Amino acid sequence: MTITIPDLSGLITKEDVNHINMGNRQISYTSWAKVSQLLKEHAPGWEFKLRQSNNDNWLFYAPDGSAFFMCYFTSPEGDSTADFPFPIMDHRNNPVPVEKIHARIFTDNHRRALCACACFTFALAHEMWSQEEVQDTLLRQSVADTQQQLQPQGDPVRDPSKPVVNTGYGKRLDDPQQKITIEIIKTFNEKYPDHQDYLKSEFSDKWLDGECKNDAKFWTKHLKFQNQVDFVREQMELKEKELENIPF
Question: What is the pLDDT of residues 16-48, one digit of tens each?
């Protein structure tokens, strides 16, 4: 039976690409959170899976004692795509011996496998793997209706009593989604207490022209749209990789 697989090439933009310096080289990557969001938006019903191995731990063993995942996607109808092996690697992309695979290595590689398998299956973010030019973002910045909007010179002054309408917002968050994200932010801040202002500062620079950092209930007031959540999650991942000295 033939499966019709969506072609998701060309979806990522330059703003979806993160960079991390590793001494004499720079690594560019798109976060697993962004890949997941694009899959849910453009390939609804498709699910990333790991093939169950004979070892009850999803690890397939190579002859040299290292291991790999066997990955695939299922369609909304439940059909499976071709298997895609992905090696368990350390932060230098070296294979990890089975006995040294701990939970962090397992979960990091699970996320990396998602990205690689999405490229293999859907051509999603193929530009990152083939070193092709990534397209410019069509809309550079979205402004929430609770946030400041710069008024271009010569344009009529906007009626402050009316909400700002901007088609580039993306999906507006509902209350449960906002609360879940705020809890994730709190967890990040508790894990890295010396960097509690990092996310707020990055968010403010991105969405608020560097203002409003001291607002009471900052996240409740300003975190309103899905693209803002994606940005926060990417910043958390980037900072965590930096602090843990583990590139994506």
Answer: 676 555 555 556 667 888 899 999 999 999 999
Q: How far apart are CA 3 and CA 81, in angstroms?
A: 8
Question: Would you state the structure tokens that stand for residue 17, as one six-digit string?
Answer: 């690409």
86 and 68 Cβ atoms separated by less than 8 Å: yes
Q: What is the DSSP string of 45-101?
A: T-EEEE---TTSSSPEEPTTSBEEEEEEEE-TTS-B---EEEE-B-TTSPBPBGGG-
Select from 177, 228, 240 the least CA-distant residue to 204: 228
pTM: 0.53
CA distance 142 to 186: 24
How far apart are alpha carbons 61 and 239 in whole angstroms? 32
At residue 84, φ and ψ (nearest 5 deg) are -135, 105
